[in-house]
Amino acid sequence: MIKKHFIYGAAFSLLILSFLGLGAAQPAGPSTEIGFFDSNGVKIRYAAAGEGEPVVLVHGWMGDATMWGMDAAKNPKLAPLPGFRVIALDCRGHGQSDKPHDRGLYGTEMAMDVIRLMDHLEIPKAHLVGYSMGAFIVGKVAAAQPSRVISAVYGGQVPLVVGAPPSGSRETAVFAKAVEEGKGMGPYILEVLPPGRAELTLEQANVLAEFMLKGKDAKALAAAGLSFDDLQVEEKDLAACPAPALFIYGSLESEHLKGRVEALRHALPKADVVVIEGGDHITTLARPAFGAAIREFLQKNRS
């Protein structure tokens, strides 16, 4: 039986991007600001570079700011961005931000981290770019605090809308169960391997998982993944946000995702849609067309 896969996480993206030389951390340049701030008791790390209208990048589950191919907001897929200040945060539970294990400290709090980051940097409004989990977070911000959003980019996912058909993905539940059982994360790897990939034994999957999760806090990631339902929004609230929106995804993404994009286009009739031909949830980030489309969208929607 072929499984449905959404691949919420950035684990496979990070692995492949690192092979492409896009996921490795880069040393901070002299004009780069790297800092931390207190977000309701949780320390959040961010990096910022450039001058102009602010663009906040929100990464995917199991990723961090390096998902964008940078350490200090110097993104080879979005740069150059003259006239923009690019800011990337490590979401709570990820990267160098704090990693609570309480599920209740994720969900809506991850969206509030974006707002608090903007408050910390004294940014009234920003362009928001999210990929995968980041798209859920950006959608929550757009629905809850539309006055803070200049434009919204939903990459590889769409906002979680109350009442929308479930994705069929068991990814976060399988991950959390493996963490709870403490017998290795191989079952998670076997769950998310795309159809057609080489078969792995459980032992091989455990070894691969250990490599992919090295340095990460699996309990924190499980708590974050289980909180995604808390990022749900009402479609009417999302539609009430006047900010221009862009849906961008690979042509090889799931039919469920494509259907959700089409459904939201009715609620957001002014939203743009860009399909990256030949890209899937893993490889779309590395395609030059991905960054080019976002650059064009941001330039078109400068405030």
Structural write-up:
It is a single chain. The chain is α/β, with parallel strands linked by helices and 303 residues long. Helices cover 34% and strands 17% of the residues. It has 10 helices and 8 strands. The chain has helices at 11-20, 108-120, 133-144, 171-181, 186-192, 202-212, 218-226, 235-239, 255-267, 288-300; strands at residues 33-39, 42-50, 53-58, 84-89, 126-131, 149-155, 245-250, 272-276. An 8-stranded mixed β-sheet has the order 1-2-4-3-5-6-7-8, sandwiched between helices. The longest helix is centred in the middle third of the chain and has 13 residues, at 108-120. Residues 1-30 and 70-76 have low confidence and may be disordered.
Descriptive key words:
34% helix; 8 strands; alpha/beta; globular; 303 residues
SSE inventory with pairings:
Layout: H1 11-20, E1 33-39, E2 42-50, E3 53-58, E4 84-89, H2 108-120, E5 126-131, H3 133-144, E6 149-155, H4 171-181, H5 186-192, H6 202-212, H7 218-226, H8 235-239, E7 245-250, H9 255-267, E8 272-276, H10 288-300
Parallel strand pairs: 3-4, 3-5, 5-6, 6-7, 7-8
Antiparallel strand pairs: 1-2, 2-4
Helix pairs in contact: 2-3, 4-5, 4-7, 5-6
